[in-house]
Amino acid sequence: MDKAYGTARTLLHHINCYDIHEVVFSHNTNDRPAIEDQQALAGIESIVEFFNREGTTT
Fold it and tell me: Who contacts 21 (Cβ-Cβ below 8 Å, separation ≥6)?
């Protein structure tokens, strides 16, 4: 996960995007649906807040 996130950040930096949210993911979706993963749901809520805040720049 860290390598993929690092690559994504590098690509975003190349297009001058520096305000980047931390990664949000759900593990074990074969055993538990992501909709039941409270940590993932909290992460999604955090992403919504991230994009709704005033003054967000790319």
Answer: 46, 47, 50
| CB neighbour list of residue 29: distance below 8 Å, 6 or more residues apart | 37
DSSP state of 53: S
How far is 2 from 23, CA to CA, in rounded Å?
A: 9
Cα gap 32→58, rounded to integer Å: 34
pLDDT range class, residue 1, cuts 50, 70, 90 = confident
- For the chain, the C-alpha Rg in angstroms (whole number) is 14
Q: What is the pTM of this model?
A: 0.73
Identify whether the C-beta of residue 57 lies closer than 8 Å to the C-beta of residue 19. yes
